[in-house]
Amino acid sequence: MVDIESYIFTRIYEAVTARYPEAQVLGDYIEELAKFPTVTVTEIGNATVRRMQDEEPVEHYVTVTYEINIYSNERLNKKGVNKDILNIIDGVMFPMKFTRGLTRRLPAIDHSRTVYRMYSRYTAVVDEGTANGDTVTFQMYRS
């Protein structure tokens, strides 16, 4: 399996916390929000690109999909904070050839009116990678 999840998470974590040091950035869903803003980054899809398969017993390309949830409770500007964080994440994902296919506002987990939640999905095609010593370099393509 082509696995770039920790790489994507680290890039988003570093970008968001550089601007919002108090932000909580997590690699999975959360049931209770204890800190704001909170960003969850979850790989929800990793599928082999069938038309690129050959007789070798390895995946050459996969389509990956990441789901991002952004929560804030800023008293006066929670929507603005979420949009700013979304722009930060776009700045990470777009140069890596990801496409944002969906962004929408959803009710917060607790259905309160004090927490503002935005949800986005990003998709790209990733190759199997090229090894350089202990590191692997992946090439990404727009899907």
Structural class, from helix and strand content? alpha+beta
Under CATH, the topology can be stated as Alpha-Beta Plaits
Outline the low-pLDDT stretches: none
Briefly, what CATH class?
Alpha Beta
* Tally of DSSP helical segments: 2
Report on the biggest sheet.
6 strands, mixed
Describe this structure as you would to a colleague.
The protein has 143 residues and is an alpha+beta fold. It has one domain (5-141): Alpha-Beta Plaits (2-Layer Sandwich), CATH 3.30.70. It contains two helices and eight strands; from the N terminus they run αβββαβββββ. The protein has helices spanning 5-19, 78-93, and strands spanning 24-26, 38-48, 61-72, 99-106, 116-127, 130-132, 135-137, 140-141. Strands 1, 2, 3, 4, 5 and 8 form a six-stranded mixed β-sheet that branches. A two-stranded antiparallel sheet has the order 6-7. Strand 6 and strand 7 (135-137) form a beta hairpin. Helix 1 packs across helix 2. The longest helix has 16 residues, at 78-93. The two termini are 18 Å apart.
Please outline the helices and strands:
Elements: H1 5-19, E1 24-26, E2 38-48, E3 61-72, H2 78-93, E4 99-106, E5 116-127, E6 130-132, E7 135-137, E8 140-141
Parallel strand pairs: 1-2
Antiparallel strand pairs: 2-3, 3-5, 4-5, 5-8, 6-7
